[in-house]
Amino acid sequence: MIEVKNLIKNYGSCRAIDGISFTLNKGEILGLLGPNGAGKTTTMRIITGFIPPSSGTVKVCGYDITEHPIQVKRKIGYLPENPPLYNEMIVHKYLKYVAELKDVNSKKIASSVEKVIDLCNLGVVKDRIVGNLSKGFRQRTGLAQALINDPEILILDEPTSGLDPKQIIEIRNLIKSLAGNRTVILSSHILPEVQMTCESVIILNKGKIVAVDHQKNLSKYLNGNNSYEMTLSKKISKKFINFIKDFEGVLDVGLMSDKNNAIYIDTKGSKDIRSKLIKSTIDNEYEILEFKTKDVSLEDVFMKLTTEEVNNA
């Protein structure tokens, strides 16, 4: 569906995008992450044909964005961070106007407007002026305009920015319901949002891709090290923590933030010391209630990769 190869974008002497490449298949939801200035919005604008690349190629549904821009735009629904709304227009008339701009078949415009109003739960505000809507309904209206031409690809830049928790959940569920038949690229600063919505992620930093994979495979970006959680039957002493720290292969040990009877243990991936840890814990007269591999969060990977990139720059 989307094929990006060696994409570069320069703004004068500043290189915003530095040779990125990735492929996105039909029906996937991709999370595009990175700190401010990493190149997320620039990447989205190039894919949508909003701005041209300096070099490299982007193909959308087989069409090159520079050679066939009109065909590409017909395949894409785009919601920028600031939705392109006309504040003086009534919601349903605005959506009808956008449908006409996007060359929706005149016989299908009415049904298309009705469909996106229903899909985005805009029925209660369809006769209201756009400029009088709440932030949540404005965001829904922006999403509706992106969907009005029934695009195969949906590109969303910070779609939940400024929304309250209830609105975030509603928009998240709506985005997830759009997957399968549509391919979605979602940019967000809210890491849990991406973790709950997207199947795979790309992490950008300083215009380069530092990670691209399905979320379940992200642990490999932590240099192959392993982390464990161990819950014991009683409060853990500082002496015992220092004892575990001295094990060969242990990188770090500490109390879990919400418990005084549980610790995390970070170890070198090349050495499996679990049986030794368990035996020594029992020898120290601690009863083990639980011993498990610590889940690697998207935040863990994001912070490691973007922080290392900055420190090594």
Q: How would you describe this protein?
A:
By secondary structure, the protein is of the alpha/beta class. It folds into 2 domains: 2-220, P-loop containing nucleotide triphosphate hydrolases (Rossmann fold, 3-Layer(aba) Sandwich), CATH 3.40.50; 223-300, Alpha-Beta Plaits, CATH 3.30.70.100. The chain is 33% helix and 27% strand. It has 10 helices and 14 strands. It has helices at 40-47, 69-75, 91-101, 109-119, 135-147, 165-178, 191-197, 238-245, 274-283, 298-311; strands at residues 2-11, 14-24, 29-33, 55-60, 63-64, 76-79, 153-157, 183-187, 200-205, 208-214, 226-232, 250-255, 262-267, 288-293. Strands 6-7-8-3-9-10 form a 6-stranded mixed β-sheet, with helices on both faces. A 4-stranded antiparallel β-sheet has the order 2-1-4-5, with helices on one face. Helix 3 packs across helix 4 and helix 4 packs across helix 5. The radius of gyration is 24 Å and the shape is elongated.
Number of strands: 14
Order of helices and strands: EEEHEEHEHHHEHEHEEEHEEHEH
Fourth-tier CATH superfamily name of the largest domain = P-loop containing nucleotide triphosphate hydrolases
- Tell me the major beta sheet: 6 strands, mixed
Give the spatial strand order of the biggest sheet.
6-7-8-3-9-10
The CATH topology of the largest domain turns out to be Rossmann fold
Low-pLDDT parts are 309-313
Kindly name the structural category. Answer: alpha/beta
**Average pLDDT across residues?**
87
List the total number of helices: 10
The appropriate CATH architecture of the largest domain is 3-Layer(aba) Sandwich
